[in-house]
Design goal:
Blueprint lengths: L15 H19 L28 H12 L2 H11 L1 H5 L1 H6 E7 L2 E6 L2 H22 L6 E5 L25
Parallel strand pairs: 2-3
Antiparallel strand pairs: 1-2
């Protein structure tokens, strides 16, 4: 009671739920003041922010489709096609030539082939234009410009005074 004889009313302290409601009301009021009203108009569609009903680049895809996409994006089509040619070499040139001539590498539209004898190297040099046409038909025009044929020898011999004693290079036949 106060001094006038009337009962003093006390407002109860707000509970956790009441405090949360007050905070939410204050946040909504601040959002309205900024122009970001909650529950009002829907925002326009902004691509890339989230995945939804529309397909985008983040959706799951089959493994082969993902690998094809990666191959295209990275520019690996040509190296993978040439690797396929190296793998299918016996089918392309025939089993007899494949038994004696092996592709070593592909650089700058040139295919380097190593033969096990000089006779097979000479034979492959004669067949090179036909093989280039066959490879370009399989891989696409202009993929193989030239076939370089190497015989059975090792690499180039290194001559000169700067050769280290006791080296086991291609010119060192004693041993």
């Amino acid at each position: 009671m106060n001094g006038d004889g009337q009962e003093e009313r006390r407002t109860p302290e707000p509970s956790g739920v009441d405090l949360a409601r007050q905070a939410l009301a204050a946040a909504r009021e601040q959002a309205r003041a900024r122009g970001n009203a909650v529950g009002g108009k829907k925002r326009p569609y902004q691509p890339g922010l989230r995945s939804g009903a529309r397909a985008d680049g983040r959706d799951p895809m089959p493994l082969m489709a993902a690998l094809d996409r990666l191959r295209t994006e990275r520019g690996w089509e040509m190296p993978m096609a040439v690797a396929g040619v190296m793998e299918r070499w016996p089918e392309i040139v025939g089993p007899e030539i494949a038994a004696h001539c092996v592709p070593e590498r592909y650089e700058d539209r040139e295919l380097v082939v190593r033969c096990d004898s000089s006779a097979w190297a000479a034979q492959l040099k004669l067949l090179a234009p036909q093989l280039v046409a066959r490879l370009n038909g399989d891989l696409g025009q202009g993929t193989v410009r030239l076939i370089k044929v190497h015989g059975p020898g090792g690499g180039p011999k290194r001559y000169g005074p700067w050769r280290s004693p006791g080296s086991t290079g291609p010119g060192d036949t004693y041993g």
